[in-house]
């Protein structure tokens, strides 16, 4: 996954933790590269926890978890999310059921292919 701001692809460090940060923007998981982090403007782009207003969020299978307070919900408070609701456009992100269905379809397609080490 590339940096959502500049498009740079993530490269894993040889040792230690990655300098890249994760966040949630418009209810989607995003990465922020070290160079964009130094600019500082990215913080305003990220969704915030509805309970503690932290930007330390991760998205997993349709739920967003706050790594600061532990709150788990279906969405976070974000500028684009709030503006979409205020505009009354009636559009929403895909639900948990749809996201799980797509993930299962991907996994089942992969597991149905014969492996090179399996002899029939």
Topology:
Layout: E1 21-25, E2 28-32, H1 34-39, E3 57-60, E4 63-66, E5 72-73, H2 79-87, H3 96-112
Antiparallel strand pairs: 1-2, 3-4, 4-5
How do the helices and strands follow one another from N- to C-terminus? EEHEEEHH
Number of discrete domains: 1
Secondary structure category: alpha+beta
Instruction: Characterize the biggest β-sheet.
Output: 3 strands, antiparallel
Determine the mean pLDDT: 76
- Number of helical stretches of at least 4 residues: 3
Q: What proportion of the residues form beta strands (DSSP E)?
A: 15-25%
Low-confidence stretches: 79-93
Number of strands: 5
Percentage of helical residues? 25-40%
Structural description of this entry:
17% of the residues are buried. This protein is α+β, with helices and mostly antiparallel strands. It starts with 20 loop residues before the first strand and ends in an 8-residue tail after the last helix. The chain has three helices and five strands; from the N terminus they run E-E-H-E-E-E-H-H. The protein is globular and about 40 Å long. The longest helix has 17 residues, at 96-112. The protein has one domain. A three-stranded antiparallel beta sheet has the order 3-4-5, with no helix packed on it. A two-stranded antiparallel ribbon has the order 1-2.
